[in-house]
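From: lab user (bench 3)
To: helpdesk
Subject: output format question, protein + 2-acetamido-2-deoxy-beta-D-glucopyranose

Hello, I'm new to running complex predictions and I'm not sure whether the block I got back is the full result or only part of it. Here's what I submitted:
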Amino acid sequence: MHFPTIIAAVIGATTAYAQTQYTSTGTAAVAAAAATAKTLSPVSSIKGKQFDRFVNIWLENTDYDMAAGDPGLQWVASQGITLTNYNAITHPSQPNYVASVGGDTHWVWEDWSFRIGSDVKTIVDLLEDAGVSWSLYQEDMPYSGFEGNWINHENGANDYVRKHNPLMSYDSVTSNEDRLAKSKNFTMFYKDLEAATMPQWMFITPNMTNDGHDTSVTVAGAWAKGFLEPLLSNPTFIQNTLIMLTFDETECYLCRNRVFTVLLGDAVPTSLQGTTNDTAFNHYSIMSTVENNWNLGDLGLKDASAPVILI
Ligand SMILES: *[C@@H]1O[C@H](CO)[C@@H](O)[C@H](O)[C@H]1NC(C)=O
Ligand SMILES: *[C@@H]1O[C@H](CO)[C@@H](O)[C@H](O)[C@H]1NC(C)=O
Ligand SMILES: *[C@@H]1O[C@H](CO)[C@@H](O)[C@H](O)[C@H]1NC(C)=O
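Helpdesk reply: Thanks, we reran it on our side. This is the complete output you should expect:
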């Protein structure tokens, strides 16, 4: 056993409750939880400097040039601004997700069930202080607040994984039932869309097929186009909305960790559609951009110094 695993196990033993109450994957337990799990769909209308809604979509493990050559992603690029000098933080996946909402990797260095202490804040604390509504949408999560990993029970394929849910490693989220209730699946995404109960900040993770992790950039690109095309003309979704599609990391560990990233939505002026921007940004810019937009302050971590994306 590696040393951090022992630490995680010890921490786990002292505050087991928060991380174990929603992990059952048994058929009956899941059916029961799906019917009763607390689900929240908060709304708000806090005016931002650049946008009033922020949508972050993460795809998986693709080198910049592979993504830039994909037809689906070329379509996405044609709708917005491609950031040609945008860099991920590290390898593998989980620390990138963790860093993008917490301003640091917090010593998460592998794809494991790490737990970050409940005193550690995230973007969620800043959003809530300012009254900005938020939700996570994780495609095949079996029910809201689920804290485990989920496999497609028909074909055994990976579906939803904890490591691709940016907030699940933070005890400050998982020990709070109202926060867990905002970690939802795509059934809830379309319900929220239908009911016009979309939040102002959201993080979207497609399943392990659609995000390219277990498939290819071709699948991820086709998914991205298919998902985004109807949303871009949906007035419930597009309300001074900035969508940022990015990748967690490159596939190649020895290469530069430059990831293909596109800004789109009606917060991007039509005149900038299909253009590029070569300013250096990174996953911490996601936080600094959101913090700047709604005057949220910062966590005093790497979010505080990350370059802000200005459109
Ligand atoms: C999505 O989550 C909701 C709320 O917990 C649950 O009722 C529903 O069954 C889930 N949908 C799928 C397809 O798992
Ligand atoms: C991922 O979602 C798509 C629908 O968007 C579905 O066709 C596919 O089977 C899902 N993958 C798994 C492993 O369940
Ligand atoms: C590129 O982005 C930077 C920072 O957001 C901005 O200041 C600059 O105006 C942009 N350049 C173009 C050509 O859009």
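A quick orientation on your result: Residues 277, 279, 309-310 surround 2-acetamido-2-deoxy-beta-D-glucopyranose (ligand 3) (CB under 6 Å). Let us know if anything else is unclear.
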